[in-house]
Amino acid sequence: MSTESAACAVALLRGWKILAGCDGALLSKVRFFHSFSNKGALLVTSDDTVFGIGQNGKHNLLGVEGDHFEQEFFQEPVRIARLCSLGVTEISVGMWLGAAVTREGLLYRWGLISDEGDVVLPTQVILDQGARFTRVSCGAAFLAALTETYCVYVWGSMNMCSDPVEARLVSGCQLVSSFSCGWWHIAMVTDKGDVYTCGYGEDGQLGYVWHEHDDIYNAKKADVRPTVKKVSCGSISTLCLSTYGDIWACGANDVWQGFLGVDSDDDCVCSPMKIGVSDNIKDIVSTWGAPNTYAAVDDVGLVFCWGKNRNPVQLDNVSSVFEVGQNGRASLDLESICFPINHCRSSSIQPLALQEESQSITEAEHDSTKEENGDFVEEYYKESSLVNRNGRKDSKSGSENEQEGIERTNDCA
After folding, report:
1. For bias kind Basic and acidic residues, which ranges apply (predicted)?
2. pTM above 0.85?
């Protein structure tokens, strides 16, 4: 990366308030960056050193060890020894666990990985077939990984009431080109442009009518009319970008989980509907949040967002999709970005979050933030006894439900 490009990369990363404790020398070496909400982040440098900063929580989401293992928050970057010098190319962190893939196709995981409460340090995951992996993404309590032979496997739990699985094949005989994870579901794009989904589908996020007795690990074809080139999952929703440049959406559609931008007043949309936005969309991105926020960029660089708004609106004050993702859940492969950023360049942010209200978190503010901020992931699922099968907190008051944005009473089954 040239000196000019490095300076541009530092300026871009400075937009994430969680990185306030990182100096310019470190940020200038970052080649991959992953933030999980606006509370924590992991960085991979050009010399293959991995650093974590911010929220570690009770489940060691940053993968630290030694004296740092039980520390819940890091004001300054800390070295993640077990991920260094591995050639990490992608990192994903969910609610309870994290995972990474390396250049050699090795898969690592850490955090809470069993229903016995075992919290582990970064450890390699090996398939009996000796498969190599190209992509990884985490749901709330599971990770999904794509092999070089285009198969998707799952480790962990895709349902709060089911036992964790190990290396469960969910793609069947389909060849998967890309995929995305929500809290409790997976959406996969096949080589033919079809969308297959599996997991928990109470709110329509699977794109078809789902029943409680359905096998959550048996992927079925979603009812998406055109061929699809990309999917992006919100917490309990799915967006599909067609090869024609239009967007189709299904799942939760309300003020708590975010509006899908479709022409429907239903609280959940089981059959994917077309979103009322430009038909020349080049990229889509989604957030996990309360509510979810969705965004898209078209072929001339116009950026649209919705979720808090019922319908998509154009963001006149945003010059690039990279800026829009700041302070949200995002992944950036900085080596693939051409600086200076062009408006119409497709984003590598997956997924995007728009959180204008996000504030930097200091260690002194940490405890109060846990209580006040509804998108703090560990507070969503602090006690498994408080969570129902869709990962929603069983609130007892309307005010608590409004704050957390988790519990809703309607379903679409």
Report:
1. 363-373, 391-413
2. no
